[in-house]
Amino acid sequence: MERMDRITKFYYADHSGNPVGPLTLGEIRKFANAGVIPHDVMICEAGGETWRSLNTIGEPPTPLSQPSPEPISSPPCSKEASPAQKVRTLKIVYTATVIVSLIAFFLSTTSDRTSVQAGDPYASQGAGDSLLVILTLLSMAGSVALIYFLVISLPERHRFASPIKAAGFFLIPVFSIYWVFKLLPGLVNSTREWWAETAPEKPRRLMWLVPFAVITASIMAMGGVFDLLYNFVWLTGDLPSDGWEGILFFSGLTYAFSEATFFQFTLSLIHILRALIDPEDIAREEERAKRTPFWKFRRRPWNPELYAWLFPVVFFKIWMVRVPH
């Protein structure tokens, strides 16, 4: 029984009949003793479909052919899908988006640097321009998908907005500058609410995310304003004869730090969410790495911390050297 308390994960049905968890029995009992949930709350083992009262945890589960101890409207645990699959999706979307965005940023910065060297702000890169447009669109699509999956990974009761609304508003020009101040703090508040629900003794542990969200939103808004001004001037053909090089430089600089802070912020959220969605994920990765023989490729635990900060590194590296024509 003690082993089950420590290892096996369960969901419990909240007042609306939605599954909450996964948690250990000890954690659920703490909620019950604190009066957060009833002592006879219905629970279900993660991956199972049989619901039973917390009071009967020492008894065998009620057979499916017999009625439950009391009628409940809670969905089966299987509705939650696979926690491992949710975490895997977040990892794949994040990694793909940051890589595509980095390649697009590299091409864009190289194009700007080449224009400065050529003395022509409208210098064409030929096929490189078409590739840049494609990768930029893919980068935008990836960022929107990342926001969508971050929101949908949260329990519905903690979502500050629907996944489609959160991601869709991020695509609207001009309005997106305002929306980032709603989006990023909203993600933080939703994550902290879920954390406080599963770890009530440490509700303030994620306080550092609040200023991080505000700083990230401010940098992204500044980059968005600068990008709008630059695109307006560039498309209307009114670039000044003197000083346009500085406009290109500062436009790229704000974009570099905007992307760096955005991806570092979302990575921080993913690390927290993966611990909430699938608490065993990190342990499984570490165990898999230990069991891999030294003569084989050893997959280290997923932690792309340096990816985000490659944006300013790439920017300064390109602007410090001459780009071959």
Account of the protein in words:
- This protein is mainly α.
- The protein has two domains: 2-80, Dna Ligase, domain 1 (2-Layer Sandwich), CATH 3.30.1490; 83-319, no CATH class.
- 59% of the residues lie in helices and 6% in strands.
- It has ten helices and four strands; from the N terminus they run αββαββαααααααα.
- The chain has a four-stranded antiparallel beta sheet with strand order 2-1-3-4.
- Helix 3 packs antiparallel against helix 8 (244-277), helix 6 (175-198) packs parallel to helix 8 (244-277) and helix 7 (209-236) packs antiparallel against helix 8 (244-277).
Précis, in short:
The chain has 325 residues and is mainly alpha-helical. The chain is built from ten helices and four strands; from the N terminus they run αββαββαααααααα. It is 59% helix and 6% strand.
Order of helices and strands: HEEHEEHHHHHHHH
Query: What is the SS-derived class?
Result: mainly alpha
User: Rg from C-alpha positions?
Assistant: 25 Å
Mind describing the biggest β-sheet? 4 strands, antiparallel
Oligomer: single chain
Number of strands: 4
Distance between the termini: 71 Å
Please give the count of helices: 10
Q: How many domains is the backbone divided into?
A: 2
Share of helix among residues?
55-70%
Principal-axes geometry comes out as elongated
Mean pLDDT: 80
Major sheet: order of its strands? 2-1-3-4
Beta-strand percentage range: 5-15%
> Which regions contain 5 or more consecutive residues with pLDDT less than 50?
1-6, 59-79
